[in-house]
Amino acid sequence: MADELKDRVILVTGAGQGLGEAAALVFARQGATVILLGRNEKKLARVYDAIEAAGGARPAAIPLDLAKVGEPELAQMGMLIQREFGRLDGILHAANGFAFLSPLSNQKLDEWVDQFRVNVAAPFAMTRALLPLLEKSPDASVLVLGESHALAPRAYWGGYSVSKAGQQNWVEIAADEWDRFTQLRINLLVPGPIHSPFRTRTHPAEARESLPATDSIVPALLYWMGPASRGQSGHTLVFNEAG
């Protein structure tokens, strides 16, 4: 439906490219005011300009590296959103921390720690910092983008797979603790194999036309971020089951 997200304020992490960019653009087209978060200012500026050029509500951009962020920066972000918008109706955690594919014998502690920070720890801490704003919303959704290798571990995915597996536990624990908030939900959406910059990086020889387009996941993003999914929380959903 047109304007399905009208008057909502939604934060999108990893908004500079891939699924985060696609989501930010469609959320804006559906009437939301989008807060763009990512570590690359040039990419955020490009998405910012695209939203404005399409006639969407003026977005905001927050350059932030989740591998380095701390509690003070997250608290400051909460105060900034409160001051500028007065509300927050949703978070899409699309940022993705990935080192490279390699056997466990080649993986380093720092690589594992960085991936855990970006994929699990920082999204958790950010959601906790912004929870007072989400609780005030009449209908708020937190949607976490997962990865198929977290559900079906395979050789060489190592610390990345393990860190993404932690997302499911976090989502289920949060949903259980939030059951008293009928207006607040959190879910995990696993895109599966679709065409994206990340998929190209991990499967460079794969034929692009063999995969669903990035935009094919847009209806699922709208459903789980929008009012139609109210009351559904703690779910793990797989968009494309293919391996």
UniProtKB/TrEMBL annotation:
It comes from the Bacteria. The lineage of its organism: Bacteria, Pseudomonadati, Pseudomonadota, Betaproteobacteria, Neisseriales. Keywords: Oxidoreductase. This is SDR family NAD(P)-dependent oxidoreductase. Pfam families: adh_short. Belongs to the short-chain dehydrogenases/reductases (SDR) family. InterPro entries: NAD(P)-bd_dom_sf, SDR_fam. SUPFAM superfamilies: NAD(P)-binding Rossmann-fold domains.
